[in-house]
Amino acid sequence: MMAAGQAAQAGAEVILLERNARLGKKLAITGKGRGNLTNSAELEDFIVQFPGHGRFLYSALYRFTNEDVRRFFHEQGVPTVEERGGRIFPQSQKASDLVDAMRRFIEQAGVRIHYGHRATAVGVRNGAVQYVNCGERQFAAEAVIIATGGASYPATGSTGDGYRLAVELGHLVETPYPALVPLETAETWVRELTGLSLKNVRVHLTVGKKTVAEEFGDMLFTHYGLSGPIILTASREAVKALRKGANPVVHVNLKPALTVEQLDARILRDFNKYSRKQFKNSLGDLLPQRLIDPVIKLSKIDGELLVNQINREQRGQLLAVLTDMTFTICGVRPLKEAIVTAGGVSRKEIDSSTMASKLIKGLYFAGEVIDIDGNTGGYNLQAAFSTGALAGFSAGAQE
Phi-psi category of 85—alpha, beta or left, where left has phi over 0 and alpha has psi -120 to 50? Predict the structure, then answer.
C-alpha cells in the first residue's frame, strides 16, 4: 500500500493487485491488534535492531524516516502516542485505523485496486518487466513492485508468493525460516503456567557455555513453552542454534533489580514475617501465586516445612532458582506462527538505494519478502513502510 501510494504520487499510473477481499489483513493484527507502527529510536539505533543486515536499510530509512511515518499517519487522521521502549502506537490503540488510513491514502492518490487478484507470474522481455499475470488476466507494466510479505500468518495472505515469483525471475531466495517466534521447552510443567506474564525479568540464552542473547522486559508462559517480547527477540539466536543441532537454554532471573545479597536479605525479611507458616505459604509477597509451586519444586525444598526450619543451604537453593530458572529449548513454533519471516530475496541482488532488482529492469522489492528481519518494537513495520516508500518513489520516477 505504501509503495503503491508513493508511486502514484510520483506521477505513475498504478494498479495494486490484492489477493484478498480486503486490504491490510496482516497490518490489522500487528501489535496484538494495537498497531505498533514504528519506534522513536534514532535512525542509527534502528540499524542495530536488524542484526546482520541493518546497513541494507540505510537509504530506505533516511528516505522515509520514523518521523515521516508518524507525520504521514497524523496527516491521514491517525495521531500517535509513544509507549515504553519507544514503541509508537495509534492514539486509538487500533491497528485497523492504520489500515483505514492507508486505504484512504492510496485511493486519494488515484491507485486502482483489484481485489481477489493473486499474481501468478511476472513477464519479462529483453531483461525488462512487461506484464503481470493473474490467472487468465494480464496487466501490462513498465515497473512491478513485489511486496507480498513473507510466509508467516498465511491466513492473512502472506503464503510466500513473492519468493516463488522471485525465483522464477532468476533471483536467489535465502531459505525462509521463522524469526521472532515463540519457543518450545522440554519442560512440560510450563503448561501449568499458561497465560502467566512476568514483567521486568532478565533472560539470557546460552548455547553450551556461551551467552548468545540477553534481554530485559516482559515474557509469557504458554502451553508449549515461552513467548513475550524478550523471548521473541532472543528467539533469533535460538533458531540459529537449533538449525545447527544444538539445544539452547533460556535462563530467567526473576528479580534482576536486586543483587544476590539484596535478594537474600529480602527473603530473610519475608521468612521472619512468616516464620510460623509453611514454606509454601511464605512466598506470596515475592512471587505471583501461580509461580510459587514450580519455584518450590525446583528449589527441592519441602513445601510443608515451617519457614523457621529452613536452613541457609536451602535458602541458597531458593536463591538459585529465583535468579536462574532454566528452560531447555527443544524447538520453535511453526513458520506460520512467527511474527516475522527471516530469509527471502537476497539483498545482494537488490539496489539498496532504490529497491530495484539488479537483474531485471523495472522490478522492485519491498518489505518482508526481502531477506531482512528486525527485533520487536515497531522496527519491522518501519522497514516495511520505508522500503515500500523507496520502491514506490523509484518505480514512480522510472515511469
Answer: left
Residue 274 identity (one-letter amino acid) = Y
Could you give the number of structural domains in the chain?
2
Q: Is 228 exposed, middle or buried (0-12, 13-18, 19+ CB in 10 A)?
A: buried
Residues composing the chain: 399
Would you state the torsion angle of the CA atoms of residues 304, 308, 313, 314, taken in this order, to the nearest 10 degrees? 20
Q: Are strands 363-365 and 144-146 parallel, antiparallel or unpaired?
A: parallel
Name the percent of the chain lying above pLDDT 70.
100
How many angstroms separate the first and last alpha carbons of the chain? 18
Chosen domain end from 299, 332, 365: 332
Domain assignment of residue 119, given as a range: 2-177+340-398
Q: Which amino acid is at 43?
A: L
Query: Which 3 state secondary structure label does DSSP give 323?
Result: helix
Alpha carbon distance 34, 30 (integer Å): 7
123 and 168 share one domain: yes
Under DSSP, is residue 385 helix (H, G, I), strand (E, B) or coil? helix
Q: Strand, coil or helix: what is 241? A: helix
Question: pLDDT tens digits for 336-374?
Answer: 888 888 899 999 999 999 999 999 999 999 999 999 999
Integer CA distances (angstroms), 314 to 3, 98, 277, in order: 61, 54, 16
Question: Has residue 399 got a pLDDT over 80?
Answer: no
Residue with cell 498465511: 154
Distance, CA of 228 to CA of 180 (rounded, Å): 10
| CA gap 146, 367 in Å, rounded | 9
> Amino acid identity, residue 317?
Q
> Of 283, 302, 332, which residue is a domain's last?
332
Q: What are the backbone angles phi and psi of residue 199, rounded to the nearest 5°?
A: -105, 145
Contacts of 103 (CB under 8 A, 6+ apart): 1, 23, 24
